[in-house]
């Protein structure tokens, strides 16, 4: 079954409260700190990027392939998140970043995927540098500075409130932010075109 994903770009209304605007910036900072944590994690486990997994074709014959991103994500979660099955992770995300404890799962996984992509790219360039011209400066991994993507499970778009909100010239969408010291849904005044309204309304039916 093929899953279709839609990305909707919306504008935050200029009347957004300064405290909420700061919450957006704080959330972005925490998101990038989570990416940085997982970049450090994968740099410490570079061997897995070269490792091969033995799998089988439909006819049963074995072959080897590199780890897929989803498998790398699972590997990272197993070794960084404390669960009943793994109460003492190798490198605890929560110990390094306590505010990530109740971070939306979709946002944390987006951070892991960002980290995987960045480390893979850097590692490939580093191997090329090692094999060619070491007189040049080695490639640098750098620090992440990514915008936040709000996934469907982080957004609430209550139809019941729309008629009232339109009377004040704009819609409201509630998004999960790190606000007043905890992760919570925060209503933000936004500017929505008709297509965005339709997509956001439909996305709520899945939750």
What share of the residues lie within helices? 40-55%
Order of neighbouring strands in the sheet with most strands? 1-6-5-4
The whole-angstrom Rg is: 21 Å
Number of domains: 1
Mean pLDDT: 84
**How far is it from the N-terminal to the C-terminal residue, by CA?**
19 Å
Strand count, sense and barrel status of the largest sheet are: 4 strands, antiparallel
Which structural class matches the secondary elements?
alpha+beta
Strand content: 15-25%
Oligomeric state of this protein: single chain
| Global outline | globular
String of helices and strands? EHHEEHHHEHEEH
**Secondary structure tally, helices:** 7
Low-confidence stretches: 160-168
Query: How many extended strands?
Result: 6
